[in-house]
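Quick check before the chapter quiz. The format below is the same one you will see on the exam, so make sure you can read both the input and the output lines.
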Amino acid sequence: MKIAYLLPNLHITGGARSAVELGGRMMKRGHEFNILIPSGRKKLNVAEGINVIECGWKVSSPLLAVPTGLLGMLQKMPPADIVIGSMPTHSLTAKFIGNRMGIPAVNYVLGNDVHFFDDNNFLKSSFLVYLYKLIAKFAIKSKYMITNSHQTAVWLVSEGGNRPCAIVNSGYNPELFFPSSDKRLDRQAMRLITIGKKQPAKGFPDLIDALNMVDQKECQFTLVVVSQDNLDMSSAKFNFQIEKPQSDVELANLYRSGDIYINSSWSEGFGLPSLEAQACGLAIVSTNCGGVREFLKDGENSLIVPPREPLSLCRAIERLIKDNKQRSSLIEAGLKSCQKFTWEVVSAKFETILKEIKADFTDV
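Here is the expected output.
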């Protein structure tokens, strides 16, 4: 198959990294994989053979890059058997292209698209948010819908969207994300790892509040914040460091340097960082934020607490810092369970679903 994937960027984000990983494996399976993005919006390295097509005029504004990029995609779309879009604007563009070329268009939904900009962190204008929601409501009524988790499917249907034809989870690369062979489980001061983002729904202030409540005499730790944002850490009453990895190799090395990974999000379509950290041999403490329930089970391979409850998060962190035995048990169980979510497993399902969609479209 010749596959075209429309994206708003190729930055270090879960959606972009998933597309790159899927593309590399689909190529190994004998398919052609093209990624179309706005000009100047590429930061990730891609596997040799993936064709990255930069579209439209190069502009500095990420907001303006969307419409200019979409117009460019209409002009630079290569021959394809199937076109995929993530994010409502790009899935609708994929649908238009599909209708024009006579090929199936897939909306691959990676989160609660309709409410993606509700926090006004990116779209400051209430009119733009309203316009975006109209587009999103229309996009989720596409015929061919795929979601990355059962939680995303629930959000999709609850907003009036069509029921997805398949759920294809995200995955991790075991050649990059693997445990350290010489990690000590009895370090006096734990290294806690987290992803820090400004968006309110990521719950980063909740984590700061939680760690400020940790008894640092009994539970010594340093927080390592992995982030590309300029975060406000002024309220932190503990040791921390901020790291800005520029590749998956650097990211995986940071994970392996830690003991416990903390996810404080209110809402996640899947929660890929938690899976990758788990594959690197970290014990996971996560909020019950939706998509992580695809691979995390409370008390079995992780500790799960309610979102927006810093005290509950604090107690779970203290529990794992103090209890080497439980931490070791969660790590061992996590290393076993995460093997069901390698990119090889995920891409095999992805390929099967795309073939079924193509066959269904041809039959009609």
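If your answer matched, good. The mean pLDDT is 93.
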